[in-house]
Write a structure and sequence with these properties.
The structure holds 3 protein chains of 3 kinds.
Chain A lengths: L9 H12 L1 H11 L18 E6 L9 E7 L2 E7 L12 H4 L1 H5 L9 E2 L14 E2 L2 H18 L4 E5 L6 H10 L4 E3 L9 H6 L6 E3 L6 E5 L12 H12 L2 E5 L5 H5 L2 E3 L6 H16 L4 H7 L5 E2 L14 E4 L4 E4 L14 E3 L2 E5 H9 L4 H8 L3 H14 L5 E4 L2 E4 L3 E5 L1 H4 L4 H15 L9 E3 L53 H7 L12 E5 L3 H4 L3 H10 L2 E6 L4 H4 L3 E4 L9 E2 L18 E6 L14 H12 L8 H6 L15 H13 L15 E4 L24 H16 L12 H4 L23 E6 L15 H10 L5 E5 H7 L6 E6 L3 E9 L6 E5 L44 E6 L1
Parallel strand pairs in A: 6-7, 6-21, 9-10, 9-19, 10-11, 21-22, 22-23, 27-31, 28-30
Antiparallel strand pairs in A: 1-2, 2-3, 4-5, 4-23, 8-20, 12-16, 13-14, 15-16, 17-18, 24-25, 25-26, 27-32, 28-31, 29-30, 29-32
Helix pairs in contact in A: 1-2, 5-21, 6-21, 10-13, 10-14, 10-16, 13-14, 17-19
Chain B lengths: L1 H13 L3 H22 L12 H24 L10 H22 L8 H4 L6 H21 L5 H23 L10 H22 L4 H26 L5 H10 L4 H20 L5 H27 L14 H25 L5 H22 L1
Helix pairs in contact in B: 2-13, 3-4, 3-7, 3-8, 3-12, 3-13, 4-6, 4-13, 6-7, 7-8, 8-9, 8-12, 8-14, 9-11, 10-11, 11-12, 12-14, 13-14
Chain C lengths: L2 E5 L9 H10 L9 E7 L6 E7 L8 H5 L5 E3 L5 E3 L9 H5 L6 E2 L14 H6 L8 E2 L5 H4 L6 H5 L5 E5 L6 H8 L16 E3 L1
Parallel strand pairs in C: 1-9
Antiparallel strand pairs in C: 1-8, 2-3, 4-5, 6-7
Classes of the chains: A alpha/beta, B mainly alpha, C alpha+beta.
């Protein structure tokens, strides 16, 4: 027996070989183990030929890239564990991944295709579902979609969530011809824009925790609360053990914050004030800045004219002021260190200032004392954190990696959904964190902040103005969402040009198409893998809208709200049963932090479910989409679904003349990236993952590709100014003076479209006095997402109920509870201006006295769902999506999720 | 044979309900056991490992031992009034022990495997010693009963092994590193409780016939309260200890109704009734029945308090399931049933007067059962 | 050889992945957790902190459960694991009351699952392994250790807060961790059971 089993990797393989060789040997081995009554499973009967371990991929959350090993006995999945060979999870699985089995074997699932017999739709209306055959179900869907395809394919809207995201849905939509792919995810996580403009590629700005020494974590978690078997969790803990100081700025204290150097409670919606004051302190009190970075790699020296635009030379190059030469020079001057960051200059008769000067001027009034009244964080704390941050940045330090010399700036700040989900104030505070990081040069260099995508020569590539090209949703200056008039998209993205996702727009365009200038009507809805009705922040509006769509078909795992409101319910397989590859999530492994084992990693994730007997009459949604495309006649030909799939399969294209199988598609995807010699059959539990590193070492830092002054990041967000300008022109051209819903409030709409951050408040910050508290929400380790049927999973439910008294509760600070006469366990009602939520109180010291905490997304259920899903308080009821209330953010389209509330006993 | 036949005739004419009632309870108990064997232990309350079965086991084993000690006290002239009761006391003791054994069978998840006590005994386990002492004591009781000549030395030895049972059962709890139980006082409490039960059973049968026994009970009942006080004071000296948590549970927590129920109904009320000069025989009998119920309640309280505070924090509640209650009543009924049956079968004292008194005596546990049910 | 576990409380994030991994590895039924993580807090706002305490069988060096077991069903094996012989256990639960850590479970049934409508295929496949009327507990996943693997909880831990190995082997990770952390604690040392699960 091995001395230390962690080190022993051979045993498992040896054992598996044995099991493959002779069934008898396995039986004998298990007999030996059977002494204590455990592990005798296989000994009960001679193992069937197909019994054994198969490769799997978890899909219990959005990340979906943890490799699993699935033990199948007699067609039944009996164990699911993390694969130690997985490059992302190294054998780990989070509580949800470990509970996969209960997602699959769950009698509350939809077990047969269903059709509605009661034409009346509503969450409390019995749909009168009757079971039908798959043939009938698909024929019905095809019959309903065909006329839409022929008249105007845009009338079909597909709403998908993290539960079933797959490339094939996009291919289906393309072949069908609808541009209306509306993610049901994201309106509570619109936290990307500042990073996408400033430097990062990929949804997250992540710290280089291998080297970072001081890190400010704002209102979120670096790992433990989402996808916590990803490297983020381990890397954060490693960093803490290494001595990295992490400061948590958050109204509530979490497990991980308890391990950080400090928890600094803050009033929700005031994070902007904190960071403005921190920046003020750095600029006016500390004064130690990375001047080299600012001059060489930011637009800080760019001269700004009174209109806010760059002052340019004849060839269109932005100008900087060379103090030594006493004249304006193009930005690409080799003498950039001679250029001014401060001052007032006149160029071609125009009075102008370096952008840095304007930023500095704007910050003057935001003293730590000023911020204290908003944040409840003392001025001294602001100063201390600012000083520590600058000190730990080690401005001027360098590090050699693979013979390449990098600046070393081991500090960072990440702000995420908690602080972000405030109208205007939310995104604005993140812009300030990005400016703060740039002031010390901690951007895309070792120790500093990076995007979480695969490192790549293009991510910091400059445009003709020398500034790094913004991407993703921030790419609107280059109009990632092309403007067209009349409206093309059903989710109003044309009115929210730099938004994240807009599922909340659907109830509006469905119910009030005229108001939103829709020139077509949504006639069919396809939903899958998510819960927009519950997570869309207005249950009633979604209920009404979903009921109003003439035809709604849904791929459903369980009887969630989507299913209850649908005409045809197609039972989707549990991910364990899906015999197909999984492309992972939108982000590469290492979603939350940079870590060498997963940065630059390309991995093919394959799930061999061929030996699993399905417990119910479900099918893989992807396979059904293929069948449906075939029935609709959009499978083959140059514009067919196969051809669309081939857009990403150039090296190993599918035959566009016929229907493909998921295995063929999976194999083509494998060959596409990993070589024509690769075969699906070669991927076994024993073989481990197929992977390679596209980058490692020095190439993992994007600075490597554009070093020195070869690119610049913005501290002056001219993109926002330009987007607003272009957007206004477009509105005007369309004959609109205002964005629908924002009538009379257009100044507020455009407030955050500003190149220089300034103090602004969200609509919940100064509420009527009776709303004396704020409610906040966060993801919890066991239940971060609706997808994967988290709340209906009996193992998760049981574990949360039994061992975590904080999970199903409404948190209230001890002092506040005392003041209000509320005791631990009391039933309370929390009421905002938009709705109410009831629940049981957990009196705790772990939350700001002005705040009520709502963990996770509990409490939303449907009439046919497992009743356990109804337990816990339903946070979303407190929020709203009404533009009149400024319930949605004009910039990111995120929903304001820090409502002012009051609490009382019921 | 003719003797017992005439007894039987007498009983039926007396219209005595004790045998059928006790028999019915025993049948219910056996039925509960059958249900349990078929369905499995899931018919029992699922919160704490040891519930009313073990409490009834302790009560019955204690009662058996108390009765043996009473018999010995009669033989040795300590309580001369009991000398004539020797056979009844021994039948009562045997019946109690057998019923105690029934409770243990009910409690075991794998009763068939009880042979493991012989095949693979673990002598560091108090259970094994309890088992051995029970076995030896039952054998000795039977020998004492069936031997032609009475021997006070043999009965004395039996009383010693009976005492051993009580002390060992106290240690079953006391040796556990669970703080509420981890007290040297528990075997002493068990001993006093055993005597209280035995005395109370006799008093319940004979009313105020035994003035000496009455005095014993008057003396012992406050002692139980004093023991409880001693435990709580020592345990609460340091406020944050687990004993303190246990005390809180009993005094003001979820067990408070049961603890104060015991204090008032199981100790204070019988004490007052016994002291009451003008009390009639009925009042003394009531006091005796209450004392027996009190001991059962005290045992349940002790068992629950020791298991209600799990290491991880919080409080575990306990309420017996229907099957458990039925099984417990069955055990108590079985003791009475066997006693009456035994007396009928073997006959007892020479005097017919005593025979009727004995049937009265048998009422006590039967009434205790009805109390427990409430 | 003495198998033991070291749990890093400074790494445990209280996610309970281990608790659930244990459930599928050992096929335990509703309400049964051979291990669990208890979530608590301490301190006063704002100097408050949240804590997680993983609890499992401590595989004590002087196990009170083995001492009280009347039929030697619970014993300590030569490799230091405290095991229960399911074929011997009489189901008296004395071990459960004697365990200071409340980590044992009584098999009350093996035909009752999580759902009213009967056992799922999965439940049918695994619950039968549990002998009704006997006591069970963490086995340190002996069946995995036999194969040279870590216990399921150790392997699955997303925080890598759990370490398993031979305490007697100075080269093992657990032995090294204990050498590096002389203040490693055990639970309820006053119970005298000498746990082999250490907290650092």
């Amino acid at each position: 027996m091995s001395k230390d089993s962690l080190a022993n990797k051979m045993s498992r393989r040896t054992f598996l070989k044995v099991s493959a060789a002779t069934a008898a040997a396995v039986a004998a081995g298990d007999q030996l183990l059977g002494g204590n009554g455990v592990g005798v499973l296989e000994a009960n009967a001679a193992p069937a030929a197909d019994d054994g371990w198969y490769p799997g991929v978890c899909k219990m959350c959005m990340q979906g890239d943890c490799q699993q090993r699935v033990h199948v006995v007699d067609g039944v999945v009996v164990k699911v564990e993390g694969d130690p060979q997985g490059r992302q999870n190294f054998g780990a699985l989070c509580p949800r991944g470990n509970a996969s089995i209960m997602q699959m074997y769950n009698p509350w699932r939809v077990k047969k295709p269903l059709k509605r017999t009661n034409p009346q739709k509503g969450l409390d209306v019995d749909p009168g579902f009757v079971e039908i055959s798959w043939d009938e179900a698909l024929q019905t869907v095809a019959d309903r979609l065909k006329p839409i395809k022929e008249s105007d394919p845009r009338k079909l809207v597909c709403v998908s969530g993290f539960g079933v995201r797959s490339a094939l849905l996009g291919n289906f939509e393309q072949a069908f011809g609808t541009p209306n792919d509306v993610p049901s995810r994201g309106s509570a996580c619109a936290y990307h824009i500042a990073g996408h403009i400033t430097h990062q590629r990929g949804p997250d700005g992540v710290p280089d925790l291998d080297r970072c020494n001081y890190f400010i974590d704002v209102g979120h978690t670096l790992g433990p609360n989402i996808a916590n078997s990803s490297p983020g969790t381990r890397n954060v803990l490693d960093a803490i053990e290494r001595g990295c100081k992490i400061i948590d700025i958050d109204p509530r204290c979490s497990q991980e914050a308890s391990k950080y150097a400090e928890w600094v409670p803050i009033r929700p919606g005031s994070e902007l004030a904190f960071f403005l004051a921190m920046l003020h302190t750095m600029l006016y009190e500390i004064g130690t800045l990375d001047i080299w970075y600012l001059k060489a790699r930011t637009n800080g020296p760019y001269l700004i004219d009174p209109e806010g635009e760059f002052v340019k030379d004849g060839s269109g190059k932005p100008l900087m002021w060379n103090e030594a030469a006493g004249r304006a020079v193009p930005f690409d001057t080799p003498d950039y260190m001679d250029c001014a960051l401060e001052g007032t200059y006149t160029v071609n008769g125009v009075t102008c200032h370096p952008a840095f000067q304007l930023v500095k001027d704007q910050m003057e009034e935001y003293t730590p004392e000023w911020s204290e009244q908003h944040t409840t964080i003392s001025a001294a704390t602001v100063r201390r954190i600012a000083n520590d941050f600058v000190e730990h940045a080690q401005i001027g330090a360098t590090v050699d990696i693979d013979g390449f010399t990098f600046p070393l700036r081991p500090v960072g700040i990440v702000s995420e959904r908690g602080p972000y989900q405030h109208t205007n104030e939310g995104p604005m505070q993140d812009f300030v964190t990005k400016i703060i990081c740039q002031m010390v040069g901690a951007i895309e260099v070792p120790g500093g902040m990076s995007g979480c995508s695969m490192p790549h020569p293009d991510w910091l590539k400059p445009d003709e103005e020398g500034i790094r090209i913004a991407n993703y949703e921030a790419g609107a200056d280059y109009f990632g969402y092309p403007w067209s008039w009349p409206l093309n998209f059903a989710d109003l993205r044309q009115f929210y040009p730099v938004s994240h996702t807009l599922v909340w727009a659907l109830p509006k365009t469905i119910l009030e198409p005229e108001k939103y200038h829709m020139d077509y009507r949504i006639e069919a809805l396809m939903s899958c893998g998510g819960g927009p009705v519950r997570s869309g922040f207005d249950r009633e509006a979604f209920e009404k809208a979903w009921a109003a769509v003439p035809f709604h078909f849904v791929f459903a795992l369980t009887y969630d709200e989507n299913a209850i409101l649908a005409d045809i319910v197609l039972p989707d397989s549990s991910f364990l049963e899906k015999d197909t590859f999984h492309g992972g999530s939108s982000a590469p492994p290492g979603h939350k932090v940079m870590v060498d084992s997963s940065r630059g990693l390309n991995v093919f994730l394959f799930r061999d479910a061929s030996k699993i007997t399905k417990p119910y009459d479900s099918r893989n949604m992807d396979e059904v989409l293929v069948d449906l495309a075939d029935k609709l006649g959009i499978m083959t030909g140059p514009d067919g679904m196969a051809a669309k799939a081939n857009n990403s399969l150039r090296n190993a294209p599918l035959d566009t003349g016929k229907k493909f199988t998921l295995r063929e598609w999976s194999e083509a995807s494998l060959k596409q990236t990993y070589g024509a010699d690769k075969k699906l059959d070669d991927i076994t539990d024993e073989s481990g993952p197929v992977y390679f590193y596209s980058t490692r070492g020095a190439k993992n830092y994007n600075y490597y590709y554009q070093p020195d002054n070869q690119t610049r990041t913005p501290i002056y967000y001219i993109n926002l100014l330009r987007v607003a300008k272009k957007f206004k022109e477009n509105l005007e051209a369309a004959g609109l003076s205002e964005v629908p819903g924002w009538e009379g409030d257009m100044d507020y709409f455009f407030e955050a479209f500003t190149p220089i951050p300034k103090w602004m408040t969200c609509p919940e910050f100064n509420p009527p006095p009776e709303y004396d508290l704020w409610a906040i929400n966060w993801k919890t380790p066991m239940a971060p997402f609706f997808c994967g049927d988290t709340f209906g999973n009996v193992w998760l439910h049981e574990t949360m109920k039994k061992f975590d008294p904080y999970e199903f509760s409404i948190w209230i600070n001890t002092a506040t509870a005392e003041e209000k006469g509320i005791k631990d366990g009391d039933k309370v009602c929390v009421e905002s201006r938009y709705g109410k939520a009831e629940g049981y109180v957990k009196v705790t010291e772990l939350i700001h006295p002005e705040v009520l905490g709502f963990p996770s997304g509990h409490g939303a259920s449907s009439s046919k769902a497992n009743p356990i899903t109804a337990e816990g308080p339903y946070f979303n009821a407190l929020c709203n999506i009404d533009e009149k209330n400024r319930g949605v953010d004009p910039l990111t389209a995120g929903v304001e999720s820090g409502p002012a509330v009051k609490i009382y006993k019921v | 044979m003719t003797n017992s036949a005439s007894n039987e005739a007498k009983r039926s004419t007396a219209g005595n309900l004790i045998l059928p009632v006790a028999g019915l309870l025993a049948v219910i108990g056996v039925a509960c056991w059958v249900v349990q064997l078929i369905v499995g232990p899931s018919v029992l309350a699922d919160t704490i490992p040891w519930g009313v079965y073990i409490a009834a086991f302790f009560l019955l084993a204690g009662a058996g031992s108390g009765l043996v000690m009473m018999a010995a006290a009669g033989d040795w002239g300590i309580l001369p009034a009991l000398k004539d009761w020797r056979r009844s006391l021994l039948i009562g003791a045997a019946a109690s022990y057998i019923a105690a054994g029934f409770m243990i069978l009910l409690d075991l998840g794998q009763p068939v495997r009880i042979y493991n006590f012989f095949v693979s005994p673990n002598f560091t386990s108090m259970f094994v010693w309890d088992f051995l002492f029970l076995l030896v004591t039952v054998v000795l009781v039977l020998i004492c009963f069936f031997r032609k000549e009475t021997s006070k030395w043999l009965l004395g030895l039996t009383a010693v092994t009976a005492l051993g049972i009580v002390l060992i059962e106290g240690w079953i709890l006391a040796v556990n590193p669970v703080t509420v139980w981890n007290s040297a006082l528990i075997p002493v409490v068990f001993l006093v409780e055993a005597i209280v039960v035995a005395v109370a059973v006799l008093l319940a049968a004979k009313g105020d016939a035994f003035e000496s026994l009455k005095k014993i009970l008057i003396g012992l009942l406050p002692l139980l309260l004093i023991f409880s006080l001693i435990e709580m004071f020592a345990g609460n000296y340091m406020g944050a200890s687990q004993e303190a948590a246990g005390t809180k549970l009993l005094l003001t927590g979820s067990l408070a109704p049961f603890y104060w129920g015991w204090v008032v109904l199981g100790v204070a009320l019988p004490f007052v009734l016994l002291l009451w000069k003008g009390a009639r025989a009925g009042a003394v009998k009531l006091a005796a029945v209450l004392a027996v119920c009190g001991v059962l309640l005290a045992k349940i309280n002790l068992l629950v308090a020791g298991q209600a505070l799990p290491f991880e924090g919080g409080t575990i509640g306990y309420f017996p399931s229907i099957v458990e209650i039925g099984g417990m009543l069955g055990g108590l009924g079985l003791a009475v049933f066997l006693f009456v049956l035994g007396k009928n079968f073997f006959g007892d004292a020479p005097a017919a007067v005593e025979a009727s008194a004995e049937t009265e005596e048998a009422k006590a546990p039967a009434e205790a059962e009805t109390e427990a049910e409430a | 050889m003495r198998y033991g576990m070291v749990i890093s409380l400074s790494r445990c994030i209280g996610c309970n992945a281990c608790s659930i991994a244990c459930k599928h590895e050992n096929g335990t039924g509703p309400g049964v957790f051979w291990r669990k993580v208890i979530i608590t807090e301490s301190g006063k706002y704002p100097q408050a902190a949240m804590h997680a305490l993983p609890l499992l069988c401590n595989h004590c060096e002087d196990p009170s459960c083995a001492k009280v077991c009347p039929v030697k069903a619970t014993k300590m094996d030569a490799n230091g694991m405290v095991t229960i012989d399911a074929k011997k256990c009489i189901g008296c639960r004395y071990c459960m009351t004697a365990c200071p850590y409340n980590v044992r479970a009584y098999v009350r049934s093996n035909d009752k699952g999580y759902f009213d409508e009967g056992l799922t295929e999965y439940e049918k496949a695994v619950y039968g392994e549990h002998k009704v009327g006997t006591v069970e507990k963490c086995t340190f996943c002996a069946q995995r250790v036999e194969e040279g693997k870590n216990p399921a909880c150790v392997q699955t831990c997303p925080a890598k807060a759990l370490f398993f190995g031979d305490l007697d082997d100075p080269a093992s990770q657990v032995a090294k961790l204990l050498t590096d952390n002389p203040n490693a604690k055990t639970l309820k040392p006053e119970a005298g059971t000498k746990p082999k699960v250490f907290y650092i």
